[in-house]
Amino acid sequence: MDNSNGYWNATLGLLGRILVIWFLVSFGAGILFADALNGIHLGGYPLGFWFAHQGSIYVFIALIFYYAKKMGDIDRQFDVHED
């Protein structure tokens, strides 16, 4: 029972961190902090605009790969991985 609680806590911790990053990038950088970020330009476009339209997609894709890697690590740590 102890091992399953540890696995569940590790999984929820990972999901929590990913959701916070997802929120900060999509809602935070794209909407809340857009005015502050628009003073910086990336590729000729204001950074807030870039995050709202393209940057968040890149971060979401990176989060997918990060999640897959870290879940594999958690699975191996708790010996529930597939060979």
UniProtKB/TrEMBL annotation:
InterPro entries: Na_symporter_ssu
Domain Sodium symporter small subunit: from-to ranges: 5-81
Protein name, per record: DUF4212 domain-containing protein
Keyword terms, alphabetized: Membrane, Transmembrane, Transmembrane helix
Species of origin: Sphaerotilus sulfidivorans
Database matches in Pfam families: DUF4212
Residues passing through the membrane, by range: 12-33, 45-68
Top-level lineage group: Bacteria
